[in-house]
Amino acid sequence: MLRSLGNEPPILADGRRAPDRREVSIRWLSGTFLTGITSSILMGVALFAALDGRQQLAIPAEAYAMSDSGKHDSAEDQVTRGGRLVPTAIASKPSDRNVLEVSTVVRDGDKEVVRRQPFAHVKIALATKRVATESYPAFDPLAIFSADENIQPAANRTGAIYGSDVESEVSLKTVPFPAKDVPFALAGSMSLDEVEANVRSNGSVLIDGNTQLSALYYVDPRRFATDDTDVDLTAGLAARIVEENMSVSAPEAVTPQTQEFADDIIPVREDTPITTALINAGYLKADAGDIAAKIEPLFGSSDLSAGDVLRIGILQKGEQAKIIRASIYRGTKHVLTVAENDHGDFVAGSEPPMLDAIATAFDNDAPITAAGRDLPSVYDGIYRAALSYGMTQEMVAQIIKLLASNVDFQAQLKPTDSLEAFFSVADENGQATADSELLYVNAKFGDTVTRFYRFEDPDDHSIDYFDESGKSIRQFLLRNPVPTGIFKSGFGMRRHPILGFARMHTGVDWAAPRGTPIIAAGNGIVEKAGWDSGGFGNQTLIRHANGYVSSYNHQSAIVKGIVPGAKVVQGQVIGFIGSTGLATGPHLHYELIVNGTKVDPLRIRLPGGKTLDGDALAKFEEERKRIDTLLSDDKSKQVASKD
Q: Are 352 and 325 in contact (CB under 8 A)?
């Protein structure tokens, strides 16, 4: 039976009345209003904190690629809560000088001594304004090519780069294993009980890191069990305890395409436009102009003042680099920052975290790049730069001699010319001494790159410098035996100036004042030194290796000691310019004879110097790879250093 509920008003008691649905509760309205305001404020504060005040700017990810994922046990790699996983990186511009502690091995009698020695690695931009810190010899081409046969080769004080690092001096002695008449008493064979005792005592430590060796499982664990203890197959296995609320992630493999962020610190040493400062620092002209155009409206000027510091934020990926932020500091005081936002536009930004490199930007006092018209000659540039970087005059002279066949020292330096060297030093100050030795040179002049390594041939213990393929950097024969001479006549048919008819000119004429020294084109043995009745006057013939003979004619005099059978070395003075025989003026008629045939000395393809092969080449390859790896590691370490 259904009963109607009716529509009567509710029954009220105690004087209360029914609520009016049209009324509004002031208490409820106030509470709702306050709750909304509080929620909005909290959300705004949280959003502001999350963006760290950068309402419009995207925060660039810092480069994990700068970390060394292979070193997890050092104190520097321990991660603490609240700390940065990766410190801010400085742009990959290696500092121009670094002193390394390197382990080398030197033979001392029948022993090999391994010790740590300091070496300096320098990379020098030659096109800079430098004042000579000390006097050096003036350019003399004869001195560059000359050689003194009485000078003995230097002893190998540095030795070879050792493959492993040592903490102190170590002596190694290698003796042949005594196959006969063994002086040691032979131990008897182990009994079965002794074998079991060894397995029982050592079985539990047969591990490889945190993993038990699989070979141990081929042994029955109960085979060597005792009543007290068993062989513990899990001994040595490590457990890793992870703190609560801590995330553990595997490191990302670093590849050439890994994206990384870096800061490039550019000190401004003289008033200069922003664009020029960026171009001088190595940026493309288009990129420099674009970022300068973004800075100028906010900075109010297109020029930087001496003492300013320009900080460029770079996002690098492989060979590509993109500018995403630029800041200007006046000393250490922040003046301006522009950065790229999420839309790719550059807008004003807040000051990025301070770097120590900004305060020390002028500490190295690097020289200012000079304009092309103000650059010195190659010869002066090498001497001034190398001496200012701690090399000795003897070491620089050695570099000059080694580069003489490939470099024009009287030419003017180019802005891109550079010199990289690796040499032993006395201490951490990086200053070379008389005992220092040059191990590696990489010279770039224009489009010509010359790279060579020092190596001691184990067969004859001779020390020389070789290129990457093991060929001596020294020329087999010089094409011009008169370094100061002027080319006058080439190889080929011509009208003889005295005889008056055409005849074959079988050599090359180099003119110079009477008495100018003539040097030997290469190492060899004198075959003839005296008067030639055929019109060549005073003539010297030198026989070289592999069928090569060089001929020097019309000399005014022959040096004492240059007689048949005498040994000469490349660059040794053998005579003087003259006009003896059928000659109209003082000059040298230079001929090159190969297997009895006269050839053009300027056009023939001459063989190189000594070439390593066999075991010597294999050892050279090992030494070269050690040096390359060492310098490559040095560069990678410098990427994150503060210049």
A: yes
Per-residue pLDDT reduced to its tens digit, 121-151: 888 888 776 666 678 888 877 677 665 443 4
CA distance 575 to 464: 27
Q: Which residue has the tokens 């190492």?
A: 523
User: What angle separates helix 393-403 from helix 378-388, to the nearest 10 degrees?
Assistant: 140
Structural tokens at position 626: 């050690």
Question: Percent helix, strand, coil in the chain (nearest 5)?
Answer: 20, 30, 50
Which residue is listed with tokens 């003026």? Answer: 585
Bridge-based pairing state of the strands 524-532 and 537-543: antiparallel
* List of residues 6+ apart from 426 with CB closer than 8 A: 118, 432, 433, 435, 436
**Other C-beta atoms lying within 10 Å of the C-beta of residue 324:** 20
Res 90 pLDDT > 50: no
* Alpha-carbon gap, residue 75 to 65, rounded angstroms: 19
pTM (global) more than 0.70 = no
Please report the pLDDT score of residue 385 as a whole number.
Answer: 86
Ordered domains of the chain (ranges, CATH): 87-163+363-474+609-635 (3.10.450.350), 270-360 (3.10.450), 486-599 (2.70.70.10)
The structure tokens listed for 382 are 């090498």
Instruction: Provide the 8-state DSSP code for 157.
Output: S
The answer to whether 305 touches 268, Cβ cutoff 8 Å, is yes
Both tokens of residue 280? 């001088």
Contact 569, 523 (CB under 8 A): yes
pLDDT at 565: 93
